Amino acid sequence: MTKRIFRSIFLVALVVLLLSVALLSVVFYNDYAVQYRSELKSEALSMAHAINGGLAEEDYLRSLEQDFLSAMRLEEPDAAPSPFTIATGTAAAPFLRGLLEQAKAYFPKLEGQVIAVENDFFGHTIDVAGLLTGQDLSAQLQRVPSLGRVLLPLHMLRHGETVFLDDYTVARLADELGCPVQIVGIDGGDLLDAMLEKEV
Fold first, then answer.
1. Half-sphere exposure of residue 95: CA atoms within 13 angstroms, side-chain side
2. Cα 113 to Cα 40: distance, rounded to the nearest angstrom
3. What average pLDDT score do residues 145-152 get?
4. Is pLDDT at 191 greater than 90 in this prediction?
5. Residue 98's CB: how many other CB atoms inside 10 A?
6. Whole-prediction pTM
């Protein structure tokens, strides 16, 4: 009888201990996840401030446009590349749509679109392309019909890698979208080459 009581008390104590450990693990994990996300958001805000404020954004866009238009005038207007989608942040989307319209006027057979991707990971106040994550690109671009090739700017990736800020790889994104994903260099000539499917 005493053994049975002791065994019951021991089992109850063991169950309580295990439940306590599990509960503490969940609490600590949630705290860690919240803190990690908060730190990422803080870093993102700092980077966005540096990108928007530290660099002469208007000068960069003006230079990009000049490079793009100069390169375009060197091409024959009968180019007929496969359809494409340029995915970017909400800040750059209007500018890129303007460039695309100029390209379509010059290349009548050009078929492309620009999609502005919202930054759900860090928050919608973060509007630069360089802080978009692979999961946001995947979730939002999967809702777009007829993507064709997907063109993404180089600065969406970690330096020297084919990985986004959230550890998504370019290969994983291409697999989830079911279409080729092409990374585009930083100047206007690179963008035009990507649109026209030229080797870079």
1. 18
2. 31
3. 94
4. yes
5. 13
6. 0.73
